[in-house]
Amino acid sequence: MPIIVTLDVMLALRKVRSKDLAERVGITEANLSLLKQGRVKGVRFETLAAICAELQCQPGDLLRFVPDEPAPPGSKT
């Protein structure tokens, strides 16, 4: 997937536990864990804004775009 979630890095930099962030933002620890692992198809802007406010960061500090590498010529995908 070309979107990489770096929430775990920001949590470490801010020395905030996932449990505490989930409580402050108003989401379950399970949903925060799925977000950290990049296993969600989307995130509400309201949730993203709350996370950024708590961690004092920008959305770009939590998300990176890494384009997929094109398949080599002649390979089957």
Automatic annotation (TrEMBL):
InterPro entries: Cro/C1-type_HTH (IPR001387), Lambda_DNA-bd_dom_sf (IPR010982)
Domain HTH cro/C1-type residue range list: 19-62
Listed GO MF terms: DNA binding
Source domain of life: Bacteria
One of the Pfam families matching this protein, by short name: HTH_26
Protein name listed in UniProt: Helix-turn-helix transcriptional regulator
Organism: Rhodovastum atsumiense
